[in-house]
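Shift notes (night). Ran Arsenite efflux pump while the centrifuge was going.
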Amino acid sequence: MPLAERLQSLFVALAALTGLATGLLLPIGPTAAHAVLPALILMLTAVFLQMNFARLGEARHATRLVTTSLILNFAVTPALAWTLGAGLLTTHPDLRIGLLLLLVTPCTDWYLVFTALAHGHTGLATALLPVNLLLQLALLPGYVLLLGGNAAMVDATTLTESVLLVLALPLTTALGLRWIATRLKGAHWRHRFLTTPASRLVLPLLYAAVFAMFAGQARTVVTHAPDLIALLPPLAIFFTALPATATATARILRLPPDQRVTLVMTTTARNSPTALAIAVAAFPDRPLIAVALVIGPLLEIPVLTLLTQLVRIRPPHTTSSPR
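Came back to this:
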């Protein structure tokens, strides 16, 4: 894994702290706030440019893995998210919605890196990526409206429009650019001049969005800093329960070791940049929801790094025969 990705949690924290200090010291709040959503939409377009839907066919060869991952991601996880929010964040409605947005959006990017580092089945992990994306695109408004309850306080039309803006627009733009580049210049040119440069833009755009968000909402963050601590217990429970559940399920189903690793990673990693973009678009007057979503990656990346070591497939030790 490149150094920039290994230090992602640190850079997110630095972007947040720098933005916070800038927002408190300089009058850039309104300008910075307007920069958040464009930066996130550009970032997601860059992410989706790297997505290869041709790998979907590989999922047909691992029906147990695919079925199990879909159940864990789109049935078990939403139920757990609702339980954690209702049980631990009853008095914090904005944090509850932030937690829900984070937990019901499976990762569509960096879990591939951790899957590869742990020697999981990267082909199947790649095949699951567009499935996870399309399902969260379809199901996310329902999750927020049904599970968010009174805490959501948003109508279905606004939420659906926000999801379409944040997910459908970047996705269709990326697919269109990939198709045009392949048709006119070929796959090699597309990889060299489109997808590779796009991959280098993802993290800088994420850091820029985090900086702008904290600069634009500096007063809100300072005022509600003690409240954000309430997110730590539910996040800790989630990042403990999901890997344990995925590992136990994989053993019960007797999945091959590389598929077991893939299942753990795809059910643990969350799509915080997408959730952040949706929060900014759907809840512009409730900045604490978006601020809450920055807490997720600060815990998630260290957890995934630890999991990489715990579930990594190690080659069997060989011993030489006696002479």
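The two ends are 41 Å apart (CA to CA). The first helix runs from residue 3 to 6.
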